[in-house]
Amino acid sequence: MKNEDLISIIIPVFNAEYYIGNCLQMLKQQSYNCYEILCVDDGSTDGSSRIIKQFADCDDRIQYYYQVNEGAGSARNFGIRKAAGDYLLFLDADDLYEPDMLELIIKNAKENEADIVVFNADKFDSQTYKKDKRWSAVSFRPLNKNVISAEEAKKYIFNFTIPAPWNKLFKKSFLDDKQIFFQEISSTNDLFFSYAALGNAERISIMEEKLLHYRTNNVSSIQGNKNKNIYDAFEALMYLERYLRMKDKYLLYKESYLKMACGIIVYTLARSDNDQFKEIIRNPIIAGYIKNMINSYEFNHINLQDEVVVVYGAGVLAQVFIRCLKMMVLTNQRIYVGVSDKVETEFEICGIKVKTIEELTKYRKNTVFICASNEKSRREMEKTVQKYKFEKSEILSDITVINMLFHMYIQIL
């Protein structure tokens, strides 16, 4: 490729000695060589600095910087200020990359004159060493197009991809012009950055190739400890809303924003422990935010009069719904949880043993609550409910459960 553009790869590092060497080695083996790597050590207390410096001594494209522990958002902002590249790529120290990742994304950026290139990724389990190819960082292509503008895809701009920055290549001049930086909070510091950038972009190119493998079950990572900073997710959502209103873009993106925010709230609540869950419900600022959110929707009454409640689904939405039920003084004996597939290994959610939905057909006269996070799963679950002749069913959505939370707050007061 002639007149190669420089990619600045910014990596926040905190106690990543088990992974940073492999990360840098994979980047050194990339088929595209015009890049610089800025490793920002965020106050590591392990051997991370020694490993990075060893690489930097042998390759002048690798730079080591140190800052007192201020969080990944601060470290990424430090990297932005130091970066000399035409494009910025924000990676984590523990993920895995395809050897042609840089080559493919920079080629795409140039060919499509993109402000942002969004590429796909899957998950890699750090314990089993297996990839979860069912999960995708890109859920769909808005309008079935490879290149979109934020405004033409206004209904989907915050929904087609995750808020993480590591599956996105950003044109630096675009970020400089829009003055977009990471929030400097303990966790969820990437949500504002990624969605503010997407919401301002005139040309977003979408790639379906899975070029990055996101490591999970890594307890030392920022993601693995996210439940310790449970309020940051709400701060990020409220900060993005304030920004969109300031830029007169909130009404334009309101539908997409609300759908995204509901999903983030349910996911956050599912990851919280019982004390945090109760604190969140009782927090007046969060309650005010949720009240404004639910005023945009109309709700059907949820029938909770049956002696037995059958919950169909075991994901984050089902978990939050069950925790709401238990806080409403319903006993465990009255709540049953079913899933579609045969349960090979016994497991529980919220202290309730999970069965197959077929095993719960003796309660078919009671209402079954379908908890599914996506339309495809929801349709399949509705067919299963009809197959087993359940007489009543209700489909729960993120916003329905959040509405329950708000009314629980009112009752607490």
Structure summarized in a few sentences:
This protein is of the alpha/beta class.
Describe this structure in words.
With about 425 residues, the chain is an alpha/beta fold. The chain has 13 helices and 16 strands. The protein has helices at about 20-30, 50-60, 70-80, 100-110, 170-180, 190-200, 230-245, 250-270, 275-280, 285-295, 315-325, 375-385, 400-410, and strands spanning about 5-15, 35-40, 60-65, 85-90, 95, 115-125, 130, 145-150, 170, 205-215, 310, 335-340, 350, 350-355, 365-370, 390-395. Strands 1, 2, 3, 4, 5, 6, 7, 8, 9 and 10 form a 10-stranded mixed sheet that branches. Helix 11 links the parallel strand 11 (about 310) and strand 12. The termini are far apart. Mean pLDDT is about 90; it is low at about 220-225.
Topology:
Layout: E1 7-13, H1 20-28, E2 35-41, H2 48-58, E3 62-66, H3 72-82, E4 87-90, E5 96-97, H4 101-112, E6 116-125, E7 131-132, E8 147-148, E9 168-171, H5 172-178, H6 190-200, E10 204-216, H7 232-246, H8 250-271, H9 274-282, H10 284-294, E11 309-312, H11 316-327, E12 335-339, E13 348-349, E14 352-356, E15 367-371, H12 375-387, E16 392-396, H13 398-412
Parallel strand pairs: 1-2, 1-4, 2-3, 6-10, 11-12, 11-15, 12-14, 15-16
Antiparallel strand pairs: 4-9, 5-10, 6-7, 6-9, 8-10, 13-14
Helix pairs in contact: 6-7, 7-8, 8-11, 8-13, 10-13, 11-13
